[in-house]
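seq as requested:
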Amino acid sequence: MEIYVLFGLPGAGKTFVGKILQEYFDFYLYDGDISLPDNMKGAIQTKAVITNAMRDIFFKKVITRAHRLKQKQQKLVISQTFIKEKYREAFLREIPETRFILVQTKKTIREKRIMQRKDYLLDLEYTRKMSLNFDTPQIDYEIISNDIDGEANIKQQLQLLLNKR
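struct tokens:
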């Protein structure tokens, strides 16, 4: 069983990296955003604060879904911001074999990607506020750098990372 969590700031390319893992490395991709409860979606749309109580419920759903998926999938990748360290730690307590991968990119590239997205819940102002709340990771993690457009660079980084396993 292989399970990875791709985490990082909005616009870093977590889902993009997850799709590469799915297409070229036979992983099942679970985008955690599909489990966002309505109250969190509403908070994002109105640019309101997302409370810890909202996050608690959301991450219970993500962990529950991950448990179900790992029963069916040999290779699982989850993409989700995981903005707070406490939720990264909670996920690891529940599924200790998980490897976390921080997807990083330059701020200017991230913001450009966010502005180019159509039908995306987050706008630039809101993502800037989210960035201020992103806890520096203390858990063990690897890094994927997504500063260069295209799949080739990401595939190469992923191959090196997967070979470490």
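The mean pLDDT is 93.
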